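Supplementary Methods. Inverse-folding protocol.

Structures were first reduced to a discrete structure-token string of length 209. This string, shown here, constituted the complete conditioning input.
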């Protein structure tokens, strides 16, 4: 705590939009899940989500949180598609595709392909119906484990947990030891507001014994 004291926000009475703005400014940097799904008619959908993390390595589980629309409270197409098909693909967002991923976040009518809108290319997956993202150097095919919902109004969240059943890496991404060097991946993430972040400023700090 600084010498000048602290400013406190009562999260139980402050408008949720204001709480959201502060949270995305301090829960940083956030990696981005580029989630590919298909609807029951087989039409592809693509959307980025920065509320995203690894849950477990054994078994390998990923989680991301598609929020309800801040205006209407409606659920995102991504969530509706996963509820219907129980499958999806998560791609990694890199510097090379950041602008296109940002374009994929546009609020398009249901059934309109964000792949086409953003200039990204669907590629066949092997074990799930949703396509991989050809321009992403890493694609993870996932099967749904569970969905939990929190809040029924605008800004309410959902936690989607899926099991990775297959990982794909571009051949030139891996080093001779089979690892993924950060300077080859060139991943980007989100900060608060319109700020993004890359991984050029990394440093090493050994973990305590």
């Amino acid at each position: 705590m600084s010498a000048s004291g602290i400013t406190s926000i009562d999260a139980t009475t402050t408008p949720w939009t204001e709480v959201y703005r502060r949270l995305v400014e301090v829960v940083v940097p956030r990696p981005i899940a580029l989630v590919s799904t298909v609807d029951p008619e087989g039409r592809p959908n693509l959307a980025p989500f920065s509320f995203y993390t690894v849950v477990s390595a054994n078994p390998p589980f990923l989680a991301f949180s598609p929020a309800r629309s801040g205006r209407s409270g409606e659920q995102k197409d991504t969530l509706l598609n996963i509820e219907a098909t129980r499958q999806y693909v998560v791609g990694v967002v890199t510097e090379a595709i950041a602008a296109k991923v940002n374009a994929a976040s546009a609020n398009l009518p249901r059934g309109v392909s964000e792949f086409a809108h953003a200039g990204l290319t669907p590629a066949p997956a092997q074990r799930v119906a949703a396509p991989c993202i050809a321009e992403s150097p890493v694609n993870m095919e996932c099967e749904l484990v569970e969905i939990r919902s929190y809040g029924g109004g605008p800004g309410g969240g959902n936690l989607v947990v899926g099991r990775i059943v297959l990982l794909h890496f571009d051949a030139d991404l891996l080093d001779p030891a089979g690892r993924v060097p950060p300077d080859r991946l060139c991943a980007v993430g989100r900060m608060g507001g319109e700020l993004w972040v890359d991984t050029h400023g990394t440093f090493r700090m050994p973990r305590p014994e």
